[in-house]
Structure formats: C-alpha cells, structure tokens
Amino acid sequence: MKKILSIDGGGIRGIIPGQVLVALEKKLQEKTGKESRLADYFDFFAGTSTGGILTCICLCPSENDPSKARFSAQEAVNLYVENGDDIFSVPFWKKVQSGGGNLDEKYPATKLEEALKRYFGDLRLSQLLKPCLIPSYDIDKRKANFFCQHDFKEKGDEKDFLVREVCRATSAAPTYFETAMVHSMSGAPFPLVDGGVFANNPALCAYSEVRNAVDQPTAKEMLIVSLGTGSENKSYPYDKAKNWGAIGWIKPVIDIMMAGAAEVTHYHLLKMFSARGNDANYIRLQPADLGAADPDMDNASDKNIQALVEVGRKTAESCNAELDRIVDILIKDKDKVEFGEPVVA
Q1: Residue-wise over 258-283: b if at least 16 C-beta within 10 A, else e?
Q2: Cα torsion for 266, 269, 271, 272, to the nearest 10°?
Q3: pLDDT tens digits for 42-98?
Q4: Which residues are tagged catalytic?
Q5: Can you give the pTM of this predicted structure?
C-alpha cells in the first residue's frame, strides 16, 4: 500500500497539523521502540504553503546519515512556535509603505527567508528523503507549478531547486508576502506565488501523482492521510458584501478561495474512495473548531500561538483512534513509490 501524507496551507495555523504530526510520530516511536520519523513510514508527501514547509522539514536528511531524517515532527512545528512572531511582524515603516497590506505586501519576507536558511541551508529538492509534491503558481506563464522531488531523475537540474526557495515560493501568499522569484539549478527563473491559490489542500494532487507512478496504484492500494489547518468559517453578511469593491474583497476572497479549494478536494476524494468501497483508505483530520485561537493566518502573537498549539493537541486527542489505526498500517506495510516509465501490462 502506498502511504501518502498531505498537509494543507494556512499560515501560522500550520501549528495545528504540526501538533497532530507530533502525536503521530510519538505513537510510532512508542509502538516500534525506535527513534522513528515520519519519513521512515510514509511513501509520498504533499504540502501547500505552511504545509509545504512542514513537509520539507520532515524530509530533510541528516548531515551524519543522508538516509535518515534530520528533524523530528516537534522540531518542524517549532519553526512556527519559535519564529512565528518574527516572521509575521510588521515594522512601522512597512505599515506606512504598504497601507496595511493594501498598497504593497503586508510583511517583509526577510525573517521567513532567514528561518528557512537556518533549517535548509543549500539543500536541494532532489536531496529530500522521499518523493514529494509542493504546489505554487507561476504568474508569468499563468499556470500551476509543482515542485516534485522525483522529477530530478528524468529532467535533472531543470527541475531541481534549493529547498529554501521551494518553501519561499509555496508560501508567498498574495498581499502577505512578496511574490517569490526562484531559480532552478539550471538557472531558469520562476516568478511564483502561494500554491494555496489553487490547491490549498494538495491531497488530490498527491493522489494523481502517485496514481501515475510506475506500478499505477489505485485508490484500493493507497492510504491518504490529509491534515487540515482549520478554517475561518466566517460568514460575510450580504448587506455589507454587496457594496464591497476591490479593497473590501481582498481578505474575504483569499479566505473563501483557499477554504473552498480545500473543501472541493475533500469532496472529490470522498467520492473517489467511496466509489469502490475504499472509504477507510482516505483519512481527513481537521479541527472541529478553533476554540480560543484567532483564525487569521498571520496572528502570531504568543497568546495565539499557544492557543493554536492547544487546538492541535485537542485535535490529535479527538482523533486518537484514527492515529492508532494509521500507525498500525504504517508499521505493517512498508512500501515505496517509484516514478519513471509506467509498467505496461
């Protein structure tokens, strides 16, 4: 069975799936009696925006042993817990220059880029431990762009990138951070924004990618664990929204677009996996509500970070039975996803 881990986007709310990953990894360690890492058991990873950053951290190889994961799930989520306030801080000059995010991007990307450099250095996408998919959007070519670790096998440096630039691109949320200009290892430029504009939940993209692997597995032969970051679920009264112009719609349309894209992906995967009675092979873990946490993607105050940590812990606790089932499957069935020329029957 091909075991796939997919993580949604959601800014600082990435702490929520991060805490679920911490709980899952702890269960793996307790069950195996080893210092297990998520990369040891999942065969394919996908992540958008904040989920893309978590994915890359989990797949970062150890300096001492390139076949082993360098970071634990807790160390992955610590990027947000320890650096969130710096990443989403707004200097006074920036507030004035950006008009609160209406005239320019709301946050300088300097602190985010510094954090990514500390985690990844000059690590390349091709050096990550497992095949993975990280969405972004090319605003020049006007097309979806997928960073895929396994593409290097066929296309070399043309499809290889610095991991820190991959993370910068997939998290370049419009109005929040400046568009990322990244370059492949062959030197080709790519002007990219957050993959959340079309695939905030990348689980369906992951399914399609794995479906086209060498042995062309079907839903029956896959396990997808999809982690959400919660949603604002904020209603917009008609009496107010009917008179909004471009400025009034900026924040609501980003929220609606990202939440709607994630919901559509979940809808289609439910239909696809239930069509042949494979419902149990698709698991979506999402907080029932955000409790005391602020749903804004950029509220990185100490108070809200701790509230998000608590939401993540409660989500893991409420999904305890599902996490136990996932662990049993991961340990029992160690597989591998191979990409290349499909097998012809």
Answers
A1: bbebbeebbeebeebbeeeebeebbb
A2: 170
A3: 999 999 999 999 999 999 999 999 999 999 999 999 999 999 999 988 654 444 454
A4: 49, 194
A5: 0.92
